[in-house]
Amino acid sequence: MVVTGHWLVAAAWYQDGTLIPGDLLELRPRTQWLTWLFQVMPIFFIVGGYANAVSLESAKRRGVGYAGWLATRLHRLVTPLLALLLGWGVLATLLYFFGVSGDITRLASRGALIPTWFLAIYIAIVLLAPLTYKAWQRWGFASLFGFVAAGALVDAAFFTADMEWLGWTNYFWVWLSVHHLGFAWRDGRLGSPARLLMYSALGFGVLWLLIFKGPYPFAMVGSPDEGLSNTLPPKMTLFALGVFQFGLLLAIEAPMRKFLSNVRVWAATVLINSMIMTLYLWHITVMIVVVALCYMADGFGLRTEPGTFEWWITRPVWIGVLYAILLPLTLALSPLERRARPADSPIPPAARQVGGALLICVGVAYLALFGFGSAPLPFLDIIAFFTVIAGSWLSGLLHGFKSG
After folding, report:
1. Residue 9 contacts residue 23 (beta carbons within 8 Å)
2. Which domain holds residue 350?
3. CA 293/CA 101 separation, integer angstroms
4. In total, how many domains does the chain have?
5. CA 379, 385, 387 angle in degrees (round to 5)?
6. What distances in angstroms separate CA 49 from CA 41, 337, 370, one per listed residue?
């Protein structure tokens, strides 16, 4: 859903020898309802909460401490990320020496690296997972309501007191709230399908009120409304959307488990999940490369105005071509994601891993916002890149990456 949604929203158009970058949500505002379907990041964080709970329980049974647990989690998350950043670091360097303007490099690389924002915040959520899971085990839903209340207060300050700077803290409060739902799922404390459907209806109702009776924009992805977005920084609308989506999904958990008991279906699910991070990280890079090739081919495939009837009927072909390129690339790079952390890799102290992980988050956050090329300050993109490398070294991740 995320991959297909991004490929739909990015609506580049070739006109009079010029490539015009476009956002379908801005060009055709009536399409914003699609974001209610394609914005599934809350599901990522909910599943992440479930997975972190399972891994923490497993580590406890095996007598593995925080440092050992964190080393394994960071290895799985950061290794495919490093491959993407190294690839774009090399490409940005080549573009510079071939005389490509810094603005073009920044536009392309920023688009390609936008998906990494998810890891910038998710890594921070993982660092806190042992603490938040303990809070859940001790206080249950009260701990969830605490995060929700914090996010709601931040939103109130954002809209009523013009404290926009405070809104950025909702990268924690909103996504910690959503992540907490995964703990509730793991503990089986969400109730029967009927109750789950009730939660879903409640989430939808709150979402409807926030948007149509409150100050929140309609689109759940991007920033089609100038100066206001549900995602930059996150708003409590994303939590309501998560409850709405999650209630629907869990209400059909039993029949879905039965469906997945089919060996072939389960094998396909395991295969896709084993390379899902690689698929996610590289999908916009593939699109950018294809757009660049079409542009150099005198705009082949890009001459139809976005949002028109002709444009829509060609989308299946466009998306099919992109998947035909992305899937082989994903298969080629996925061993980086599937390979376990080398057994002989030393486990750095927890404090060193946390410090390294925070450096990774800072560097990735910058590159997701600005990319390579024309940096707001000289060499800031290079500094951000080497901040990620330094954080990876400090966390002991480069040993495993090199061994591969």
Report:
1. yes
2. 39-274+334-403
3. 18
4. 1
5. 100
6. 13, 19, 29
62-67: which pairs have CB atoms within 8 A and are 24 or more residues apart?
65/350, 66/130, 66/350, 67/347, 67/348, 67/349, 67/350, 67/353
Residue 213 lies in a domain: yes
Quickly count helices (H) and strands (E) in the chain: 21, 2
Q: How far apart are CA 155 and CA 177, in angstroms?
A: 14
Give pTM, 2 decimals: 0.89
Q: How deeply is 297 buried, as exposed, middle or buried, from its count of CB atoms within 10 A (0-12, 13-18, 19+)?
A: exposed
List Cα–Cα distances, 297 to 14, 292, 368, in angstroms: 11, 9, 29
Of the candidates 261, 379, 282, the residue with the CA atom closest to the CA atom of residue 326:
282
From CA 215, how far away is CA 313, in angstroms rounded? 35
Size (the chain), residues: 404
The alpha carbons of the chain give a radius of gyration, in whole angstroms, of 22
Q: What are 347's two structure tokens? A: 């486990």
- Site of tokens 């980086």: 336
- Six-digit token pair at 210? 């926030």
CA atoms within 13 A on the CB side of 10: 23
Q: Let me know if residue 241 belongs to a domain.
A: yes
Rounded CA-CA distance 154/162 in Å is 11
What's the CA gap between 288 and 266, in Å, rounded? 32
Q: What is the pLDDT of residues 3-39, one digit of tens each?
A: 998 998 888 888 888 888 888 888 888 888 888 888 8
Q: Is residue 350 part of a domain?
A: yes
Per-residue pLDDT tens over the stretch 40-86: 899 999 999 999 999 999 999 999 999 999 999 999 889 999 999 99
